[in-house]
Amino acid sequence: MKFFRQLLVAPAALGLMAPMAATAADLNLEGMSDYSAATEQVTSVSQFSDVRPTDWAYQALSSLVERYGCVAGTPGSSFDGNRAMTRYEAAALVNSCLDSVAEITDSERRLLKEFAPELATIRGRVDGLEAKVGEFGASQFSTTTKLSGTTAFIVGGVDEVSNNEAVTFQYDTKLSLDSSFTGEDLLKTTLRAGNVSGPFNGAALLETAFNSSDNLEVHRAYYQFPVGDNLTATVGAKVRQDDMLGVWPSSYPSDSILDVLTYAGANDAYNLSMGAGAGITYAKDNLSASLVLVSDEADDATQGVLTEQGSDDITAQIAWIGDNYTVAAAYTTSDGGNTTSSANAADFEAYGISAQYDLDNGISLNAGYGWKTPDEESDASNIEDETTWSLGVVWSDFGAEGNTLGFAYGTAEGHRDDSGYDDPMAYEVYYSMAVSDNITVTPAFFSIEKDGADDVTGALVKTTFQF
Question: What is the CATH number of domain 145-466?
Fold first, then answer.
């Protein structure tokens, strides 16, 4: 009876909030819990500010509240005695009064009969609501895990790549499982499949370039959790450098095209190495500081973690985050698993500084610069000091709300200080159009210069589905 009473009093609560008659089709049960809790707090008619002992119905109201434990008005404020009562309010009131009566009198039995249609309507609506809740619970994927996904269709082609100039239609799909056990932690599992090949996975490498031969592979597996108030720790068997950094210091690109222009200008400091890793980030007010380790070959027993044979990358980052800008500096050291004193392009130290500035008109300006110093140099193998940089502009809501215009210009590879070196550059322009909340269509044009070779120019249309 107690639970049924709570369901019945919902129409009364709604009637007190809106002075209009309710029909069965308009019935709303959202307020029943709050109203039911309030009825238990009213123990005296004196709690109604507009009811006085001189009122002709004072004794009747007092009996309803104090003898039967009923509430016949707005608890804690006014009774609103001159306002009309709906039949639903009357039904709820009768039921709440009868809840405290051991034996039903003839008068009370007549009241139950009088309001039987309204009581039946309420029971039917509640039964339907309970059934829908049960269906939802039975079909729920998980109480701790959220599934989301992204699929990109890439249609396009390039020029000046021998025997690889035909238009292709390829795809890249990611499925992300985000689990939380405390509400503050994150277990990230990402599955990925794709068939991006040819120039888009080579001479004109795209950020979405992934080729698993249509096989679904584990692409991320890491756990992130808070340590105290200002620290966040990350550990994983398959985690990427940027997953553990406190800040990514660039808003470019909002919809990625060329891979070479997605490293915030510091392509070696932010080399996005992937493998087993661990990291810690300190964040307080505007300051963020991170220290992360990635072991590229941690799954190989002949290489391992933090061994001479294994390839390990350690990155330190410090950043300042303002209201409309971000500035970050990064340092990365990588040994490339080099166990000799010979020159190795993967054995280096790299530095980078990047910044983002957001204007009030929806334009975001991005710039970054990086330099790399190999542990051992070899001019003959082109293993020597290199620099990279890029500039990027993102214009949100350009042309229409939700659409984005992007443009970037930067180094196509690490530039060397060599006589006769062409210092190749790359640029791209794209326009991302929001077809709906879940679908964007992005045409793009790009050009990549090559040292001692013809430029690679191409165009594509990328359609992205988010679900």
Answer: 2.40.160.10
DSSP 400: S
Return residue ranges of the chain for CATH 2.40.160.10.
145-466
pLDDT per residue as tens digits for the range 292-302: 999 998 888 88
Mean pLDDT (10-residue bins), the chain, 467 residues: 39 37 41 43 71 76 70 61 72 66 66 81 81 70 88 94 89 97 96 96 95 96 96 98 97 94 97 96 97 93 84 96 97 89 90 97 97 90 94 96 97 92 95 97 97 93 97
CA distance 261 to 254: 12
Tell me the whole-structure pTM to 2 decimals: 0.71
Reference 215, options 200, 244, 195; nearest CA is 195
Strands, E, within 348-438: which ranges? 348-358, 363-374, 386-396, 404-411, 425-434
Three-class SS of residue 355?
strand
CB 290 within 8 A of CB 315: yes
Residue carrying structure tokens 């990514």: 248
What is the distance, to the nearest Å, from the Cα of residue 392 to the centroid of all Cα atoms in its chain?
24
* Residue 317 burial (10 A CB sphere; 0-12, 13-18, 19+): buried
Do residues 422 and 451 touch, judged by C-beta distance below 8 A? yes
Contact criterion met (CB below 8 Å) for 404 and 252: no
DSSP secondary structure, 29-48, as one string: -TTHHHHHHHHTT---GGGS
Nearest-angstrom CA–CA distance, 441 and 463: 4
Which residues are CB-contacts of 84 (< 8 A; sequence separation ≥ 6)?
19, 21
| pLDDT (tens digit per residue) in 274-315 | 999 999 999 999 999 999 999 998 888 888 888 888 889 999
d(CA 60, CA 62): 5
Check residue 274 and give its pLDDT.
96
Return the bridge partners of 331, or none: 316, 351
Distance from C-alpha of 276 to C-alpha of 321, rounded to nearest angstrom: 28
